[in-house]
Task: inverse folding
């Protein structure tokens, strides 16, 4: 089997196994353990200048090749253009995006530096798979370095309609860069259709023909096992005791404005206001590890959430009941799985999301004899795949409150009827199958 070269903004720490690993590292585990592979990208560290020679760490058949980023490149490429321009634009939030030519230049320079450092490490016949919005121009830069290998690109986040994307200055250049890839993958058919139309509008019809949907999944069986084991642990027994028999609602999201957290908190507030019967009978636990904490919009969101949590708890708390438990620390994956299994409802209401793996994890964590209900944003990429969820408009707190009330009251037979097909979809659409489908397209 040919070697697989994965390029991503962040490379997982070779020492970090298991407990806190999530996201891409988990999804690609199968692909990088069954063949020779290299994982190339940013080390997560900054230095005075961006490194030109990658640091190499070998672990069995897998080589990690990482570059430190210069301080100015970190600000321009990562904080500036990737997080400040592209992330909001791709999540349909042009109003939150800013554009700065210097940052855009930094973004292109880092992509060129990645390509230059990677090119000498490549072997004939390697399959190269670049991930996510940080790397639109990487393929074109690799071609400039003389790379002839097959190049794939997968976008983990949504792709908006061209009318939105073209609000980004230099959108045309970004689309022309994508045309260097042989396979271009997105999460949903809608995203794929949007990107095809955008490419066609820029005269890239041929590249539009290389765009397909490859919905990402999770290792459902492993997550189910984690959840089953977690509930046996002392820590979970203590947590259950602390709930004193109250129903649990769980939310798990990075602290990000795409996740719809303020609207969700107001939705929960509406549940307590409009359906007084739930007061003192339900506890909502929201796990929200801080992310991009050095970006102003994320700091503002954190303050907004602090205030909302304080107000909701202030309004409804009893001496022995806190309605909304809110944590900004990350929780180990097995503990999360345990929380999810115990929760009567999973509350997943992003304003936009490429896929949303939490929705799938919630489904996988459920007890097949007594599953909980999933309240899901219709703007999550997962929505078209999880038909048994209670779909809501995440901008409408009243709709969230109504769906939560329905979830709390849902009889077992309805919960089973909704959950079973979703469990099937989540198991079938595994991370492994996602990798295999993409690599089959890439390697023909
Ligand atoms: C991007 C796209 C797409 C969260 N808190 C903790 C924790 N997590 C884990 C979750 C889940 C992962 O992080 C988050 O994945 P999501 O898919 O929900 O969202 P993004 O981080 O925005 O990911 C998204 C994804 O890429 C994959 O393509 O689905 O649309 O935005 O696995 O469980 N894990 C641990 N502690 C936490 O506190 N251990």
Result:
């Amino acid at each position: 089997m040919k070697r697989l070269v994965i390029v991503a903004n962040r490379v997982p720490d070779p020492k970090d196994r298991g407990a806190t690993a999530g996201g891409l590292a988990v999804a690609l585990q199968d692909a990088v353990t069954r063949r020779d592979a290299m994982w190339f990208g940013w080390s997560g560290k900054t230095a005075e200048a961006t490194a030109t020679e990658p640091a190499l760490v070998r672990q069995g058949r897998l080589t990690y090749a990482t570059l430190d980023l210069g301080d100015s490149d970190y600000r321009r490429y990562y904080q500036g253009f990737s997080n400040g321009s592209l992330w909001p634009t791709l999540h349909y939030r042009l109003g939150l995006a800013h554009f700065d030519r210097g940052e855009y230049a930094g973004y292109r320079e880092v992509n060129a530096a990645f390509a230059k450092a990677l090119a000498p490490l490549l072997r004939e016949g390697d399959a190269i798979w670049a991930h996510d919005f940080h790397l639109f121009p990487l393929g074109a830069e690799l071609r400039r370095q003389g790379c002839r290998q097959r190049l794939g690109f997968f976008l983990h986040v949504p792709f908006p309609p061209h009318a939105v994307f073209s609000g980004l200055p230099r959108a045309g250049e970004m689309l022309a860069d994508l045309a260097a890839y042989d396979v271009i993958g997105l999460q949903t058919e809608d995203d794929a259709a949007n990107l095809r139309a955008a490419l066609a509008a820029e005269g890239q019809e041929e590249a539009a023909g290389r765009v397909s949907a490859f919905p990402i999944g999770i290792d459902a069986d492993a997550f189910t096992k984690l959840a089953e084991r977690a509930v046996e642990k002392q820590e979970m027994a203590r947590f259950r005791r602390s709930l004193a028999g109250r129903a649990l609602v769980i939310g798990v999201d990075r602290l990000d404005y795409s996740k719809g957290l303020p609207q969700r908190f107001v939705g929960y507030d509406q549940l307590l206001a409009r359906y007084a019967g739930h007061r003192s009978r339900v506890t909502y636990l929201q796990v929200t590890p801080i992310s991009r904490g050095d970006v102003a919009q994320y700091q503002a969101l954190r303050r907004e959430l602090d205030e909302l949590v304080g107000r909701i708890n202030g309004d409804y708390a009893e001496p022995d009941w806190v309605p909304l438990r809110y944590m900004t620390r990350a929780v180990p994956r097995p503990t999360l799985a345990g929380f999810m299994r115990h929760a009567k409802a999973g509350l997943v209401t992003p304003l936009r999301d490429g896929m949303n793996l939490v929705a799938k994890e919630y489904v996988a964590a459920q007890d097949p004899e007594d599953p909980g209900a999933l309240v899901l944003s219709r703007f999550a990429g997962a929505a078209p795949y999880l038909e048994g969820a209670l779909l809501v408009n995440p901008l409408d707190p009243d709709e969230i409150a109504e769906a939560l009330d329905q979830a709390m009251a849902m009889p077992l037979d309805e919960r089973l009827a909704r959950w079973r097909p979703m469990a099937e979809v989540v198991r079938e659409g595994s991370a492994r199958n996602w990798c295999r489908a993409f690599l089959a397209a890439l390697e023909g």
Notes: The pocket of GDP-alpha-D-glucose is lined by residues 20, 22-23, 156-157, 216, 252, 254, 287, 289, 330-333, 336, 353-358, 361, 381 (CB under 6 Å). Residues 296-316 form the longest helix (21 residues). DSSP finds 17 helices and 14 strands in the chain.
